[in-house]
């Protein structure tokens, strides 16, 4: 069996990219043995995974410890909590955090992993007959792969779950972006192939890195988590959202406005409906709920274990996706939509713009509705609610053939095709 070195943080055993788990779990079916090079893990992985953990020096470790920062949670949000900032947008605090991060996090907050990972990777390449390698996340993983590529001349694929200098959620200044772009061009100059998670992003990569092949491999769902046999649905008309909300790029306000209009018009029975948010609690979200007078039906339940969140998805009548609110960025899927695919429940995607990748994906698979506007949300919501009133449930009609194209198994197959071509 051919051997593949996967360089990146191994989620869920350490916060990182979910692609690594899916790739490592299913790439063996296509003739590749994965070896994962990662920073120290917070919990032991399943024993069948071959994992090499390295040491790690956090450049901001002293300050994180001083401020009681949890490395598994969003740093920006925790800093705001320390200063008692509860608003959704706090320009001064955001500005200070961003400007500080622009300097101290250059070129990547995880840069303290580079040296020990290169040393550990070199030992692996000297002792193992490794045929190819892929760097996934964080950005530092590409620095590590470049050095190993230069030393050992093996095929290297650089994967971008999110873009680097072309990132849709880029927080830093135009000067920092220019520096990142120059560094990205330099680091990836020796990569044999590039990968990203949507067609627009792959096209952007190819345009920036002229002459390099850029492939599209979307995120996926784990076939082991598929809702089969189907879980029993809630008696109420439940709408469930799980995970983080990235403000101001994701906004629940359109959904709230649509619900308020439908309630004011007397078309919804408040006793039958509940909108559930699972994840970090936000004070600003409570205020939004109060603003639209929805505290009786919209609730934040706080953070729960991921497996519990998946169970909440499977029992829900409808799953909520907050699409990316940017007319300039049509390539943002987010991994959540593919996780929802595994739950085999209908999806209501609110916000965003018509014709983006979420719109196309839901149209192709038939598992949900994309409603960018308040009026569109009201129309879609009423169709779902009418079905619920008539049958006490919302049917799931996603065709298996179309859905299974977005499994982790299919993701691994596409990666293996690239590796096979390179060797």
Model regions low in confidence, pLDDT < 50 over at least 5 residues: none
Biggest sheet overview? 7 strands, parallel
Cα distance, first to last residue?
13 Å
CATH superfamily of the largest domain: Glycogen Phosphorylase B
Global geometry: globular
| Overall average residue pLDDT | 91
Q: What is the spatial order of strands in the main beta sheet?
A: 3-2-1-4-5-6-7
Quickly give the CATH architecture of the largest domain: 3-Layer(aba) Sandwich
Q: Approximately how much helix is present in the residues?
A: 40-55%
In total, how many domains does the architecture comprise?
3
Radius of gyration: 22 Å
CATH class of the largest domain: Alpha Beta
Total count of helical runs of at least 4 residues: 16
Taken as a percent bin, the fraction of beta residues is 5-15%
Task: Tell me what you see in this structure.
- This protein is an alpha/beta fold and 423 residues long.
- It folds into 3 domains: 183 residues, 3-Layer(aba) Sandwich (Rossmann fold), CATH 3.40.50.2000; 44 residues, no CATH class; 182 residues, Rossmann fold (3-Layer(aba) Sandwich), CATH 3.40.50.2000.
- It has 16 helices and 13 strands.
- It has a 7-stranded parallel β-sheet, with helices on both faces.
- α9 crosses α14.
- The longest helix has 18 residues.
- The chain is globular.
